[in-house]
Amino acid sequence: MASVSGSVRLQRCIVSPAGRHSASLIFLHGSGDSGQRLRKWIQQVLNQELTFQHIKIIYPTAPPRPYTPMKGGISNVWFDRFKISNDCPEHLESINVMCQVLTDLIDDEVKSGIKKSRILVGGFSMGGCMAMHLAYRNHQDVAGVFALSSFLNKTSAVYQALRDSDGVPPELFQCHGAADELVLHSWGEETNSMLRSLGVNAKFHSFPGVYHELSRAELEKLKSWILTKLPGEVERQSE
Fold first, then answer.
1. Mind telling me the catalytic residues?
2. Contact at 8 Å (CB) between 207 and 175?
3. Tens of pLDDT along 62-105?
4. How far apart are the C-alpha atoms of 29 and 101, rounded to whole Å?
5. Range of the domain at 157
6. Nearest CA among 6, 158, 160, 31 for reference residue 97
7. Report field, pTM of the whole predicted structure over 0.85
8. Quick one: which H or E segment has residue 221?
9. Per-residue CA distances from 106 to 24, 115, 207 (Å)
10. Which single residue of 34, 144, 234, 235 could bond 61 by disulfide (Cβ 3.0 to 4.6 Å)?
């Protein structure tokens, strides 16, 4: 299936920076969603567009594929899952194919002049899980990773990759609603402590009363974190 990444070009919804583009943010949606809808959802929660002076935001859409938790129904998902649980094997074949496809997206930014150290990857729910696979297994030189309402399976290939690596992995910013009934808060906490034990500087922010959703407080916190990882560069005016 090596050829698949060559044939898949992801649909992307892009929010351009207001000023000079010097950093990029790849924000992955949850299962069954789209880049366009994630952008709108964030806009509704914040009452304004998530936008930055110098950061381009890319909201790609996962290609449609059969999804086992929906009894094989077609859905826009980054990869397949045997079930929504942290206690089953990962569907590595589909995860690996998508890591290739998303690598093309990162490469496009690098070709346009953005350094890898000025690219952040992250997402909501399944998107956050995908971002962790992408960064910790394939691109440990990105600026950072964020995962909102996300988790990794107990035997995740991400853990193995970190055990085998001797570099400094990118920082993780994790948020989770304490009332989440779909992706349990404890799965998020467990993922966080496992990653920390493997050398990741992983922050975990818990939001009481928040379900499997985006909250304003969390997005404001994320926005501040994004700016600490991708600060605006001082513009040097040439004479």
1. 125, 180, 212
2. yes
3. 999 999 999 999 999 999 999 999 999 999 999 999 999 999 99
4. 15
5. 12-229
6. 6
7. yes
8. helix 216-229
9. 9, 10, 31
10. 34
Alpha helices by DSSP H, 49-175: 92-111, 126-138, 157-164
Axis-axis angle for helices 157-164, 185-197 (nearest 10): 10
Query: CA 68 to CA 177: how far, in whole Å?
Result: 25
The answer to whether residue 6 sits within a structural domain is no
Q: Which amino acid is at 223?
A: K
- Dump pLDDT digits (tens) for 10-49: 999 999 998 999 999 999 999 999 999 999 999 999 999 9
Please report which helix (H) or strand (E) contains residue 125, including its range: none
- Which CATH number characterizes residue 53's domain? 3.40.50.1820
Q: Is residue 3 part of a domain?
A: no
Residue 239: inside a domain: no
- Strand 144-148: give its sheet, edge to edge: 11-15, 55-61, 23-28, 119-124, 144-148, 172-177, 202-207
3-state secondary structure (DSSP) of residue 105 = helix
